[in-house]
Amino acid sequence: MRYTNNIHMGITRADLFTAEQNHIANIIKALGHPARIAIIEYLLKVNVCICSDIVEELPLAQSTISQHLKELKNAGLIKGNIEGTSICYCIDEKTFGFLKNYFGGIMVNTQNQKCC
Amino acid sequence: MRYTNNIHMGITRADLFTAEQNHIANIIKALGHPARIAIIEYLLKVNVCICSDIVEELPLAQSTISQHLKELKNAGLIKGNIEGTSICYCIDEKTFGFLKNYFGGIMVNTQNQKCC
DNA sequence: TTTGTATATCGCAATATTACGATTAATTAT
DNA sequence: ATAATTAATCGTAATATTGCGATATACAAA
């Protein structure tokens, strides 16, 4: 199977892979940035916080932090609830449980495999 | 803390985060693409294979598959050993174990956290 | 009503990523 | 020696991502 037209550069074509593969890749991709790892680790430490707390914690502009929070939220890695004038963010343990299971499953499959 | 010069766009500045945060982000980023998820899942199924097997399995050109394999190998997610004229690839269970532990640790921290 | 606080969105610039075909390099078979 | 096979690398084009400042929005306080 190959592309049927000339438009084939630079874009990840979701229709070439299974829905499950695209789904797991999207979640993992959202975590694949040091700023977003730092946000997750900060959330683990403080349990719950608002955006401006993270802006104080990390060396990035407010708009950049907001963007990263949006990506984490879209991927289901964090939850954000409106609380007065600010938004209360926390880890979404459901998605992290999914990731833990995914990697746990890989480890089970890999056990007593002999490699080249 | 802010950037001290004007060069600040589009680049992820590794020096802004801890070595550990950059390390985990790099590994996770390498997995954050459906083609690379598909390669890993194929390797889990067949245990061991060569590049041309994957080229037959996935709807991508040989050069593209080779590029993805390089990224997975650089991240320590797969191993590749020369075997005659071809290269034998397999999962590197060490790095997947690291990921499993990372997410396991997050789950432990998240347990009995009450969110907003 | 105006001011302040908190966050999201817009527009832009620069770099990174993804994908291809073509080529190269290295090994094996004829 | 030549041809075939396997995989990596190069060059290129297009899209995606990252980051900023500026602006917009929404609510609370004065």
CATH topology of chain A: Arc Repressor Mutant, subunit A
How many domains of chain A, as an integer? Answer: 1
Sum up the overall morphology of chain A in one term: elongated
How many E-type strands of chain A?
Answer: 3
The N- and C-terminal alpha carbons of chain A lie at a distance of 29 Å
What does the average pLDDT of chain A come to?
88
The CATH architecture of chain A would be: Orthogonal Bundle
Count of alpha and pi helical runs of chain A = 5
- For this structure, what is the CATH class of chain A? Mainly Alpha
Low-confidence regions of chain A: 1-8
Provide structural commentary.
Two copies of one chain form a homodimer. The first copy, chain A, has helices spanning 19-31, 34-46, 51-57, 62-74, 93-110; strands spanning 49-50, 78-83, 86-91. In chain A, helix 3 packs across helix 4 (62-74). Chain A has one domain: Winged helix-like DNA-binding domain superfamily/Winged helix DNA-binding domain (Arc Repressor Mutant, subunit A, Orthogonal Bundle). In chain A, strand 2 and strand 3 form a beta hairpin. Chain A has 116 residues and is α+β, with helices and mostly antiparallel strands. A three-stranded antiparallel sheet of chain A has the order 1-3-2. Chains A and B meet through helix 1, helix 2, strand 2, strand 3 and helix 5 of A and helix 1, helix 2, strand 2, strand 3 and helix 5 of B. Chain A binds a DNA duplex (30 and 30 nucleotides) through residues 2-3, 7-13, 33, 35, 50-52, 60-70, 84-87.
